[in-house]
Amino acid sequence: MGKAELSDETEELIIKSVLIFYGDAANPELAGKLAQDVETYWNEPSAAVFIRNRNYAVRFEISGYFDPALEPEKVWYNDDPALNFFRIEEFATGNISFVDGLGSNTGYFKLQNLLQTPSTMAHEYGHTIGLDHPKILDVRGKGTPGIMYPRGTLCDAHMQYDPLVEAGAYGGVLDPAHRKVLLSDITDLKLHKLDFDENGFAKLGDFSSFYHEKHVDPEAV
Questions:
Q1: Do 125 and 41 fall within a single domain?
Q2: Which of 8, 102, 125, 135 stands the most exposed, by the fewest C-beta atoms within 10 Å?
């Protein structure tokens, strides 16, 4: 989720998101790195959007913080569209990281997923600002996959976990390190349709406001 601002002074559409991390596997260094990953990936296309008869350069401004004492009430009653809350733990039920729906501001991340590739956080951020997985998960012959393609996507051999195996076999699917934020991903956000107020502010996404308790690993009990 983010707070969008039209700046006539700089001719930019600035999308501001604050990523607040909590949980036993979160820390200040990781929070800063994940925010930087998101900002780097989403600014790479150097996109522009036409709004109110003007062209605005799209810029993502992402910051990350660790809040070890985060109270559920701060999540439940937050009304700032820039704030997002994500729990990070070594164990996650289902062995996956997730956010609480498309256009949400909360989620639960498995540490190993985040450390595997910087595209993981950028992918999950895409969900928080409203993007789903593509319906057709086969990008063979179509070049670099967009950021919203999930693990399991069929792709050209050099972008597989194992370039030497047949597509679809074990290791023959997309290594998420190869996906990027493309101009088409920015287009899919439909930023020109945001409901800007008289001061040039709009909300991108919505409040899921779910505080996640730590998942319990049954094998560790």
A1: yes
A2: 135
